[in-house]
Amino acid sequence: MELDLIEYEIEDSIKNKISKVLENLVSKTSAHIVVLSDDAGRIVDIKGKETAEDRSEFIASLMSGIFGAASEMSKMLSVEELDLLQFEGKKVDVIIKAIKPRFLIGILVDKGVALGSVRLFLREASQELEEIFSNIKLVPAKKIKVDVKTLEEKLSRIIGA
Hints:
Elements: E1 2-8, H1 12-29, E2 33-38, E3 43-48, H2 53-76, E4 84-88, E5 92-99, E6 103-110, H3 115-134, E7 140-147, H4 148-159
Antiparallel strand pairs: 1-7, 2-3, 2-6, 4-5, 5-6
Helix pairs in contact: 1-3
């Protein structure tokens, strides 16, 4: 069995539009971090106070995995298609929202921030992003075929197992 890992190139003008939407969301919500990734967890853009690359990639991967698992569970339970996932921590709240055609936006905010407002601003940002993505054609820039065993070996080396 092989997996296809695909990276997409996005034009600079589109990247600028995406960046402005995310910056606006951070400004309105005082978010620690806003991550836009594809459904496989590859970061498209990231904004906020905590944008260290290794931590951001880890957060994007977790968002993708958590959202994917929750989506599969909702299918198994014959629940409507999952659009938004929210969970609360002791210090931060996290909201992950699907962006059509195949992206996710995640936001981490302090516990004291009004989640109703965050969801409202997140919905507005997601509508803007969906409009941006509907007007572009996603063309694969790089496609890598990798077998599962090789992927497992690489992951083991990364996490030190």
